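Need Isopenicillin N synthase-like Fe(2+) 2OG dioxygenase domain-containing protein's 3D structure for a figure. Predict it.
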Amino acid sequence: MELPVIDLNAFLQGSRCEEDCRNLANVLRQYGAAAIYDPRVEQRDGDRFLDMMERYFEQPTEVKLKDARPELYYQVGVTPEFTEEPRDNSAYAEKLSTKNKPTPFQGKDCKWRFQWRMGPRPECSKYPELEAEPVIPQGFPEWPTIMNTWGEKLLATGFAIAEMLAFGLDLPRDAFVRLLSRGSHLLAPTGVDVDKYEVGHVVAGFHYDLNFITLHGKARYPGLFIWTREGIRIPCKVPDGCLLVQVGAQLEYLTGGYLEKGFHEVVITEQAKQKAKECKSHWRVSSTLFVHVQVDSILQPLGHFQHNELAKQYYSPIEAGAQVAQELQAIQLKNTT
Ligand SMILES: [Fe+2]
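Structure prediction for Isopenicillin N synthase-like Fe(2+) 2OG dioxygenase domain-containing protein:
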């Protein structure tokens, strides 16, 4: 099945579009994800971005490793394969029925990732590593232009979604947007060589995203599976011309669990192997943007979500930067020593 589509047209034309906003909230509550149509996002920007990223990931390992910044917890530049390890989500997975269990997997993800910071930064912050200068790979003079063009489109979509969602959840319209202003948003494409692994191999183990929402352009290869609120595992199918949005841990926090972070995994599938026969590059690239709450802002349930008893129990106030640091430690990107 294809995910329900939320069309941003009416919102962007200044209409109240209450029904679209409530529909967005309901779809995100049910699926932890939605397909989004934003007329401002053009396929050719996504294609230019994917073409460049395929060329980047196709480079030899030793060339890509020059772009790694472990001292900054890989929050800019490249994260090599077998670095990130999904945190232990077995308590959640155990509750799933047999046919909806995650694909068996242990250890570190075989995906590469490149992170590029988007948008203006705060003038000073308690979390300087989350505000680091970008890395520009050698031999890619077009890098900043292509990254920023694509990233700004996704970011604009992300802010529109945040405003619509606040309205759809009966919060002030700027409830989320004011927290996202000057956030450490990251354009963070992943890459994996489809030829290198067998069908069934896990590229990104069962996990959720630590940020507010995640946006993706449509990938050229299948392989992403998501879990609905009821714990049903479905292949993520996004209609042509649409983007994908997923709920991250920060949005769950701000709604006191009304919206739940969306679990997902990426697996090499038979369909991906078939697709490789017709694609120029055999690297599966995701065009991912992580939209983040500004690091010095407090995460806590907003508005009417504060009054829920569970919210008080499970979502006590925490600085977004501290929450991000905890999550990065849990997935082995930030050493505790
Ligand atoms: Fe993810």
